[in-house]
Write a structure and sequence with these properties.
The chain is mainly α. The protein has 2 domains: 1-66; 88-163, no CATH class. The chain contains 3 helices and no strands. The chain has helices at residues 2-65, 88-102, 132-163. The radius of gyration is 34 Å and the shape is elongated. The protein starts with a helix and ends in a 10-residue tail after the last helix.
Length: 173
Amino acid sequence: MATAQTTYKIAREVETQDLDTRTDAGVEVAMTSKTATDNFTVEVSQTVVEGQSIMDDTRALTTEANEPSADQAALACTARTRTGDQCATCQDEARYARLDAELPVAETDDGTCPGHNAPCGRAAMPGDPYCARCRIASQRDRDRVIQEWEAVRDAAVAAAKAQEAPEAAPAPF
């Protein structure tokens, strides 16, 4: 009977130690999980705050740019993406500004259309320096320039991807 009691006592001690070990492991896993969740929550919160800040900056810049007395040259894009590039709106506006510089229109004082490629003389549309015929011609030219630009951009991207392609043979190690 003494041997049975000793065996029972040892079994209880082993079981208690095993339970303590499993409890400690469970607590450690829970703490690690909580830390990971907390870190994720902080990162997501920072991303949301950053996104809201970008939206606020964009709204403020848009309001400032729409004022009649705004100096367009001084209103460079201060809203940047994570990679440091201009925001998409400013990229589009810069592209259209370059197009407008390439396809200039000299407004007339008498309200007639200056013409797109040659003097026109028709009545200009309200709020637009062109007549309807010249507006369509200018939009076609703009679309052509955009298509040419996109073709050059796509070719540059394809060339960059070809240069960055992985090697045909894997590394020896």
